[in-house]
Design brief:
alpha/beta; Isopropylmalate Dehydrogenase; 2 domains; 10-stranded mixed beta sheet; 10 strands; 16% strand; globular; binds nicotinamide-adenine-dinucleotide; binds manganese (II) ion
Length: 359
């Protein structure tokens, strides 16, 4: 059922996280004024910076509270290269939240928008990379581990249960995208020639593809598939793959569509969602007001789209569409161009241009 208001936990995080989150909240507030949607946003200040100052980091109890109280989490970016826990790994709540909420799919759509120069000659870039985020190459993160200077091991594990859910999401996303003119096609990127776990992944993919034969499908080895993303991006509609392959290929996808500044993402399970840009905290440009908020704004739109689906709320779905169109209008007009896309506009100016385009 449509809810009013939706309860949203907002975690701005580190670096440019708070800057782009402010911009996205300004766009959402304008949508509340204009379109009759209501959001009750509650900020949480978890960050690597907080850990550096106080040793406090997000706990299972925090995540239980957030998971129970809120309909969705809007997340900026977390992590600073010099803030590390005892195992030498960076502090960031995104990996913990994926594990805690069982978020197994990270949806990362990119499109080469009108008005944006990509690095390729082909302008036919319109794909959704679905990265599995609960197992794969990150499966061993919780394993017992003896620190050593001689050997260190990570573990790739693939399960049938996660593959089935993941590929169901991939085929339904392809079906949903087809309504706006995409081909309706899913490609598995894998390495079943060399990794046992990937033999199982391929087998389950074949089964799910056979059960969804209204949608075309293909399989490429991850290596050549990565090359095709650059040489022939038109091959791809939905790409689905395991954790580390998806981490990497989603950033190739972002790169050929104009960069991380415009690449959103949604980490979802069947009933929880964390919405954040694909980029990190960008310490190199933090605090200058120059970060491109587009990826964050599009992530907020993905949140409304997801809330719309979860609660059968056409208003939320329609507002998500309006935000996407406003971003398209802003980029196509070219009068307000973010710095990473070759312009001069700062974070707030870009947000204001999106707000103007909502009119
Ligand atoms: P990054 O995504 O933060 O930055 C990579 C490059 O892209 C930088 O040059 C940066 O300036 C640029 N960039 C990123 N977002 C931009 C934006 N919105 N507008 C303009 N330019 C943008 O990746 P990194 O430098 O590898 O990592 C920095 C920190 O972020 C690390 O601590 C890393 O662990 C963390 N990180 C967090 C997340 C997350 O919160 N989900 C994801 C990736 C990295
Ligand atoms: Mn990444």
């Amino acid at each position: 059922m449509a809810k009013t208001p939706y309860e949203i936990a907002v975690i701005p995080g580190d670096g440019i996280g708070p800057e782009v989150v402010d911009a996205a909240l300004a766009v959402l507030e304008e949508c509340e004024r204009r379109y009759g949607i209501a959001l009750a946003c509650t900020p949480y200040d978890f960050s690597a910076e907080l850990y550096r100052r106080t040793g406090r980091k997000i706990t299972a109890a925090d995540m239980d509270e957030i998971g129970e109280r809120f309909d969705a989490v809007l997340f900026g970016a977390m992590g600073l290269p010099d803030v590390r826990g005892p195992e030498g790994l960076e502090l960031g709540a995104q990996v913990e939240m994926r594990a805690h909420y069982g978020l197994f799919a990270s949806l990362r759509p990119v499109r080469l928008f009108e008005g944006v120069e990509g690095p390729l000659t082909s302008r036919d870039v319109d794909m959704l990379v679905i990265r599995e985020t609960s197992e794969g190459m990150f499966a061993g993160l919780g394993d017992a581990h003896e620190p050593s200077d001689e050997t260190a091991t990570d573990r790739m594990t693939i399960t049938r249960a996660t593959c089935e859910k993941l590929f169901d999401v991939a085929f339904s996303q392809a079906r949903a995208r087809r309504k706006r003119g995409t081909p309706g096609h899913v490609t598995l990127l894998h390495k079943s020639n060399a990794l046992r776990s990937n033999v199982l992944m391929e087998k389950v993919f074949d089964e799910v593809a056979a059960a969804n034969d209204d949608i075309g499908s293909a399989k490429h080895y991850i290596d050549v598939g990565s090359m095709y993303m650059v040489t022939d991006p038109a091959r791809y509609d939905v790409i689905v793959t395991e954790n580390i392959f998806g981490d990497i290929t989603s950033e190739i996808a972002a790169g050929i569509a104009g960069g991380l500044g415009i690449a959103p993402s949604a980490d979802v399970s069947l009933d929880h969602g964390v919405f954040q840009p694909s980029h990190g905290s960008a310490p190199d440009i933090a605090g200058q007001g120059v970060a491109n908020p587009t990826a964050m704004i599009l992530s907020a739109a993905m949140m409304l789209e997801w809330l719309g689906e979860q609660h059968a709320d056409e208003t939320a779905t329609a507002v998500a569409q309006r935000i996407q169109s406003a971003v398209e209008t802003m980029l196509a007009a070219g009068t307000t161009r973010p710095r990473d896309l070759g312009g001069e506009a700062g974070t707030r100016e870009v947000a204001d241009a999106v707000i103007d385009a909502l009119a």
